[in-house]
């Protein structure tokens, strides 16, 4: 696929891959920042998301020479392109990376397994909490710690830089962030989850962590409400004047960066495992998507030079992304009159008044995908570039366009249709599929029957999308379908799909030892109303309590 942008293109041999060291905001009003600044800050001051000023294009001869590297050596090669050595010296960065992936249960970190025909599964769930978010959050936790240790050298008591991490989770971010940050000095973690709407295992994984710096808040609302509270807090001058807020949601650039690594790694694994696949050949990646962070990492890998045929977005019935690719309009709800297609099992999916449906793949129950804004910036940038002005003008235009789309999204619940050229450039690199709950269950069942593999429901959404994509692309293009969670995290859906399989035994076949007895452990969680000022109050109180305990220690 070609994207027609001058800064991309593996063809051109004389392009150097200068490490990108500075970041700008997608809304164009906040730029020139260091990696450390954007990692600690999360969201930009103008409400946008940080992106690198330039995506380094890695010459073919360079990235192809990475093919036999270990996961951590590959990670170092990729991540160091985006971090200036004057910010993190090479040896320190290597150490951070090595420690981040030493917590994984397999040395390969993200192994690739052949599933069926031309479909391969990239297993991303071998980290401490059994979901793909560990790949990014183990790294982010260690980065936070590294920056804070450095900032606090020689400082005592209240002079120390104290980071207050606030996150929203529909399940997996919460536990992965908590495991990335528990017990770390000078950091408090507040994790907001929609009360009663995360899977029982996920809830236990979060609430049974009793470290003093970990605070679970159960919000009476849905996940989008939690995200709204988060946005209000980050935009609030009062809390920002007294607390240094940090973000662990996938708006944090370091998360996207860490995830680009496994796109390269799985590509090389495929070349090792498959005789008919050679380095240089194209692949398709299929990504079960919610906030669009995971697939966006694939887009960066592509822009860096990885031969990607298409990135296939797989959504559940919360399909705002899928509708964008079909219509060019991005709206929270389908525009009235256009009835949802696909024969929804209305009893299986409860609709809430704001349009978000509870599905069997709850980590994808998102209608406003925060990271989509980053892709929008690139689409607007390409569009501006076609006018043939200078790069500074193109970037300024892109920022303005993104701001106006996002304003419409906030004020009118949607934007679009976007210009035809913008939609075309989105379709050049991406395809999309929407998978219902019934199709999700059918996919779990058929893969179990056909190859004996137990998929979690999110992964099943991806595999169904991959099967459809194979029909379009043909069997010659290998598909790497991302497996985002271990099936034991979503026992409800897995058991429902496989209940009538005579020899299926969840505890023997699926349940990892680590989950046994979790429900017997002590829990810590606090209920809070769906009101951002109430959350702000809780944060103030609890941070003060933590600091007091340190004062007297
Ligand atoms: C977070 C998550 C997703 C969605 O990833 P995004 O980066 O938000 O698109 C999919 N599956 C699982 C299991 C997840 O935890």
TrEMBL record:
The modification N6-(pyridoxal phosphate)lysine is found at residue 133. It catalyses: O-phospho-L-homoserine + H2O = L-threonine + phosphate. Pathway: Amino-acid biosynthesis; L-threonine biosynthesis; L-threonine from L-aspartate: step 5/5. Residues 22-101 form the Threonine synthase N-terminal domain. Transmembrane segments: none annotated. Residues 109-342 form the Tryptophan synthase beta chain-like PALP domain. Residues 1-27 are annotated as: Disordered. Its EC number is 4.2.3.1. Pfam families: PALP, THR4_C, Thr_synth_N. It comes from the Eukaryota. NCBIfam families: thrC. Catalyzes the gamma-elimination of phosphate from L-phosphohomoserine and the beta-addition of water to produce L-threonine. This is Threonine synthase.
